[in-house]
Amino acid sequence: MIAERGLASTRIADVAERAGTSPPAVLYWFGSKDDLLTDALTVDEDRFYGAMTERLAALERPRHRLRLLIEACAAEYDWALWMELWGRALRDRGAAAARQRLDDRWREQIAEVIRDGQQAGEFAAGDPDDAAAIIAAVLDGLAVQVTLGDRAIPADRMRDLTVRSAELLVGCELAPLDERALAAGPSEEPRPWAS
Amino acid sequence: MAAVAPAAEITRARILEAACDLIAADGIDEVRIARVATRAGASTALVHHYFSTREELLEQALIHSFERAGEDRFGEPPDVEQSATSGLSQAIADCLPLAGPQEREWVLWVELWLRAVRDPGLRPVAARLYERYRKWIAALIRAGAEAGEFRSDVDPEAIADLAMALLDGTGIRAMLEDPAMDVQVARALVAERLAVELGVDAAALRG
Fold this sequence. Notes:
Chain A has 195 residues and is mainly alpha-helical. Chain A has helices at 2-5, 12-19, 23-30, 33-57, 62-75, 79-89, 93-119, 128-147, 155-170, 179-183.
């Protein structure tokens, strides 16, 4: 509901109705609308992060994992909620703490893939945390324009610009994944890849 | 009418400025018409004369702020009298939330993002500003490539998009007081990445 309308236009009573409960019950569990947003976003993030962890683990080569991370952020992630959190985090301590925690976890996920790539000899040497910060910043920045529907930046340009920038950063070509790899769930066996 | 219009324009602009100040200070959701009126030295009736609803006032305030920012910042072609490298270095500093007026502008910037996500009617305002921003940076890149300061094979539009993404992506973290990304770290990081892309010395872009 927050994704549909934005937090300011979401009334506790509406949330309660959709969830099939009462407004006092919603407030009992969440305390305030800011907490509700933060918790809703955290649930959403945990789901995306958990699924991503499994999909990454199903890919053998770090270069494919990095490509998947970028593709998923450009094509699948719901940035509207994330941008709500930015707005709230400017003024609400709880939202600011949640933003920091979720953001750190996301960058760590990227850094881990880069470390794996360096250990496997696929990626060039360099500070993996710095590289992750850059890739995350490019994704965050481009996501604003994609989410605002700027015609100059459709989602596939977001993907291509980030891939190109990441390739230069890790010194390795990040070739497109086939469709099965993109849709791969946790049950799929890792398969060998042609490079 | 000619004598009346400028006064009305001035009053309208004063109300919009007051609204921008309050949006920057308190967040858009907290802004009330009565407080905007007090700050502008006007009555609530006068505010309502110009803006029929609170939503309209807030929307017009963001539009006012960004049309003006676009004019001030991106209206002039970048000054490349010294060099494109120093012009780009200055542009990086100008577009990050440095303390002072730029930080205030950034708060409004984030509010515009949020509003435009919720309200598609505002997206053309954001798109127009980004369009100017892109052209302005791309002109700098092109000038540097033509002058032989940057690699001659750069794609100015792609580098401009990358530069804007890096500035927005690191700028928002600095705004949110991320301990690993203050505004000076952001500035160094953007300069370093663009230096690699353009084939110039990072120190020269860092300024």
